[in-house]
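User: Can you predict the 3D structure for this chain?
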Amino acid sequence: MAAFVKFDGIDYDDDPEAGEKLSVFVSWIQRLLEPLEGVLLDLNFGDKGSYLYYVFGAPIAHEDDTRRALTVARQVVNAPDVHSFLRRVQVGVNRGTMRTGAYGGTTRRTYGVLGDDVNLAARLMEQAAPGQVLVTGKVQRDCPTDFGWEALPPLRAKGKSAPVPVLSLLEKAAASRPGGVGVEPGQPMVGRTVELALGEERLARALEGKGQVLGITGEAGMGKSRLLAELIHRAHVAGMALYRGAAQSFGTNTSYLPWREVWQDFFQLDPQQPLVRQLQVLERRLAAVAPGLPARAPLLGGVLNLELPDNDLTRHFDAKLRKASLEDLLVECVRHRARQGPVLLVLDDCQWLDPLSRDLLECVARAAASLPLLILLAYRPPEASASRPLDLGGLAHFTELTLGELPAPEAEALLRFRLRQIFGEGARASTELQARLLARAQGNPFYLEELLRYLHDQGVDPAATLRPQELELPVSLHSLILSRVDRLLESQKATLKVASVLGRLFPAAALWGISANLSEPQVRSDLLALTRAELTVEDQPDPELVYLFRHVVTQEVTYESLAFSTRAALHHAIGLYLEAQGPEAVARNLDLLALHFDRSPDTAKRRQYLLRAGEAAQARYANTAALDYYERALALLEPAEQPPVRRKFARVLELVGRWAEAQTEYQTILGLAAARQDRPAQAAAFTSLGELHRKRSAFAEAVRCLDEARALYVALRDEAGRAETLHYAGSVAAQQGQYDEACALYQRSLEIRRRLRDRPPIASLLSNLGIVAWCRGEFNDARAYYEAALHLRREIGDRWAIAVSLNNLGLVLRDLGDVDGARAMLEQALALSREIGDRWSVANTLSSLGDVALTQNELDAARAFLLESLGISRDLNDRQAQTFLLDFFSVLTAKRGRVAEAFRLVGAAQALRQTLGSPLSPSEQARLDATLEAVCPGASAADRAAWIAAGTAVAAEAALALAVEASA
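Assistant: Here is the predicted structure, written as structure tokens:
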């Protein structure tokens, strides 16, 4: 193996520290090579650039010299900050037959590695871009799965008659190898014949481009992971790209935890690299998917657990839009990857998915139907795990496979197979012992395997005939695992117990960082022993040494065996350990800190981190997690401390539609504020109650609360508060059709906001005034208001709000008869909404474009717009949007000459609106009626009424299917 490294950035002529810098860099290279037994052979430097040359395989050879050489190469191009003086590092690597040994004259000799393959490595170095490692195809074939690769155009090299296959070494190792925890490559699958056949059939469908989602469910120990491993292996053989992750028992509130590894692998990120380096890689990968996606890179901070700063695009996104845009971005990435080749996505232990991970899974699963994508999910039944079921049952391409007890013949075959594995080839068990083991295991594969290991640890000869009283078997899987743990050495038991508090997956360094009783040498020795005992498995090697429990049941049983006081003390120690990692680590691990401190006796830390985690969850739109954190924090606060937290709690309750509970919270806040005569808090509570009543259409109560709030704000001389209540009161009036009152209230609020120079609310008020004018048919006034709002929003730079204004302007221009202008505005709005990734806005603007195309009688274009909008509304389950789409499809169908079907669609839209409680506004109803009258002048009133009545009996999905068919 030969590797050449070119570097630049040291001024040998004018920098007095040049020698020291060179020494630091070369010494660092030598420290990388020494433990791997590589050799630095040569160093050349000068004004035209410097290079060094290292080799593996001579004078000391290893079976994995290629992997060693590439490991060093990847570290070199990602030199740590201490070498920031280097401006560019380029690396070329090749392998082959080379001449090695001493060379030179009689008085000056050295050791060298020479030959044509060495020269080719040097040429690759020259061709590499800064920060890039180029290798030949021979190098990549030597370890195809240990690293990530990007194929490049073949290179024409001096002395080579044919172009040389060249690849670029990527920043991160390739996704995890096929298989599962504790499953050796090539290990045969025993049992589960029927289930495996079903999995293979779903795999075949996915390879044909008919994406599938397969959920594998069963109680602990039933073989979910083993079946997953077998399907992963077969998908790997079929050429599917693998991305996998797993939920953790401690992560039910940790947003996107099971997805982190998936997206790190997808974007080829190395978490150990500096943030700026990871961001560069991320933007490059996003640009390969679509040119506009790098601007949305900051949204990936949550899913990758990185602190990515916002940019001009994302800075104005609220929590809801951030979530929607992120989901759109990731689904687009999956589509792009699947178009390049079939993809396998695996998520294990899904009973512990956090809410945002569930939402993202649903988005990806919906998109899978038309892709060469297989999604494998493993989870315990809801009744066995106290979790809610996955919300995928409505997908036609979703299948749930339940693993029950192994059938008797398969259990017997598994017993014989495991017996040979554990006791050695030729081992057999007596008939009596086999019967006892099978009866005790009750078809649970893990229980059966653990029974055999128990016998092996006890020194029992399985072939011997033993009377029942001579062999007492543990009565449950729980007691069986405890008996195995009890036989460990004391230090091994201590290591295992501390690890169980960290979770199934745990970094080794945390063990000796948490407990003064656990030293690093002892922990390393214990973990090796526990791995030999098949209780743990190494997941990542040094320097980031990570282990996991071979089976999650072992971790759960070990944790449950700890005394409550011991658990609490360990959770507290883990919290302090995480806190000591520094502010950045704390920000990344708020959910973990909240979990561990909440299970500790430290009340102050419990309050602190539950509140911080709740605020972070609320900012991510992780509403379920936020409610959980706030509720637990409130139980620890004194009444005087509660109002600010209750206000946040109530706002999240509003977001998730739990309005009655939100009202109770606001009333509680009001009572607490009144008891303390806290008038600002009272005013804020009345304002929140007024807005909540408006959303619930309790208009009289809304007005009363807003009047109370406004009186308090006047007394407090709080102009911003008064403007807010006037704004909300205007919306109450508008919602009731009291347009004169709404205009007056909006204008009063606008006057105050202008004095305060508060631009976002000014733009919002102008937009609201435009909506009122539009509802009254005053289209020129509406246009003026919309244009003023648009101008201001462009100054602010809020692109989502700009898209809203453009959409509004497009609709009013349509009503003014300027159809070309309307289409131009709507196309701008659509482009912005796509850039932002707000699929709701995209669908809304597409339906408006469809309406405009209908006005221009461009029927095929209209149908294309409406079909795309319909696809998104189905993904989002947006029934309100579907009512408008049914109206637009009715006009399109009528223009196709299918009058009866058109009016049936009108009836279906009316029925759906009645179900939703949102009738069409008078102006919109009049416009629809006039359009259909113009298109269908020959239809009698009686026929129309009959067709509409028939349409009201059609279910929503059937009506949408009719719309698609009849409009063709």
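The chain has a mean pLDDT of 89. The longest helix spans residues 319-340.
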